[in-house]
């Protein structure tokens, strides 16, 4: 198939491009490079031996999308384009609604015009808000605790309405938990611009000496060691979940909504200790007060994805830590 990957030079998008190419698909990347680098395209070529097409542009550019769909025979869209820093979304909500919600609306309108009816959407476990219990199943109530989460909710609803009102759509809404790690080659990985919004880049940067310390927000949660527990999934497992979802949609013209995680919770301190053990290094950290809005526990029930997609996350916590450190070292080689 010919797959358009929006946001394809980003962390999850780039790893999914690799898995799509390895599965024999042709890939075109559309990215405005607001939080990524065009050099990723060359790195994908190094890994796969062939290069995705690349168009620098924004999903809000309706004319660009119209031209792109007219020129290339796109079979399906994998939609990663969007901004995702929770803290920034609270400070600049308009920016998030314009980029994420309005951008998706423009993209879907262009797909309708071009008669492209298959989309795999990068959603998030943030749509569950603060869950009443764990593990979280797909039928849990949805809510948003910040504007970023609300954009995911609105896009999910937009896709559901499209499925309800327009025949022939094949839609996957994939609710990610916490992607970490990197490709084993060390050529692509998570490279946030500015201050990271996720735990693993803080750990790798503290271990590499790029930060004085890692701050651990809270040690008095009702968890085994008092620190927050999350479901961390290796980014390559997550990318393969997209391939499995695409294959499912080819057989089943419907809307699919599934969690993608490991189904296991890992605490912040457990992640730090595993990282130190696997990589034979120290992660300087300091425990501070809880961060507003954080929850104690969050992990997925993955049985639906396991059953429908014949997919599960195979890579271990040690693999996640080892691959993330290899990527970090490639970015900051010793003097």
Descriptive overview:
The chain is of the alpha/beta class and 335 residues long. The chain has a domain at 2-180 and 233-260: 3-Layer(aba) Sandwich (Rossmann fold). 41% of the residues lie in helices and 18% in strands. It is built from 11 helices and 14 strands. Helix 1 runs parallel beside helix 2, helix 5 packs parallel to helix 6 and helix 7 (199-207) crosses helix 11 (317-331). 45% of the residues are buried.
The H/E string reads EHEHEHEHHEHEEHEEEHEEHEEHH
CATH architecture of the domain at 2-180 and 233-260: 3-Layer(aba) Sandwich
**Shape designation:** globular
The rounded distance between the terminal residues' Cα atoms is 45 Å
Rg = 19 Å
Strand content: 15-25%
How would you state the average pLDDT, rounded?
Answer: 96
